[in-house]
Amino acid sequence: MQNQAETEDTRAFWNDVDPKVVTDLNAQQKQAIYVAVQRRGNARHAADIRLSLFGYFLVVLFGRERRSQNRLKNERTRRPVVTFNNLLLIAVLWGSLIYTLYSLLPHAIKGLLSLFL
């Protein structure tokens, strides 16, 4: 796909494909794959947070839902939200948020009051 204007997504994809496989593809197949990779790579999210700590990662994406109802149903079957590990992580995140807000709120109120009084 050297004749196409390549993006980081398409370069990464073609670098991952076995060169022997790429040589067996005709131009039409390569173009179809290129279009599919481009379509998937164009999705930008309103918020895209990716953290990696101590060998674990956390990804938080926020944006408009673009997946079809059929795809959403299939993904919920394959990756259910209500699992022990997910609920544990949600509880830890919410607990951390509540603790932080509870700890900071008195200081924030005191600071705001000192500005106006």
Description:
By secondary structure, the protein is mostly helical. It has 2 domains: 8-41; 47-116, no CATH class. Helices cover 62% and strands 12% of the residues. It has 5 helices and 2 strands, in the order H-H-H-E-E-H-H. The protein has helices at residues 8-16, 19-24, 27-41, 69-78, 84-116, and strands at 47-53, 56-62. A hairpin with a 2-residue loop joins strand 1 and strand 2. The mean pLDDT is 84. The chain crosses the membrane at residues 45-63, 84-105. Keywords: Membrane, Transmembrane, Transmembrane helix.
Domains (count): 2
Query: Structural class, from helix and strand content?
Result: mainly alpha
Strand order of the largest sheet: 1-2
- Name the shape in a single word: elongated
Topology, number of strands = 2
Biggest sheet descriptor: 2 strands, antiparallel
Which blocks of ≥5 consecutive residues have pLDDT under 50? Answer: none
The residue-averaged pLDDT reads 84
What is the oligomer described by this structure? single chain
Strand content: 5-15%
Q: How far is the N terminus from the C terminus?
A: 67 Å
Query: How much helix, percentage-wise, in residues?
Result: 55-70%
Q: Number of DSSP helices?
A: 5
Radius of gyration: 23 Å
Q: Helix and strand succession?
A: HHHEEHH
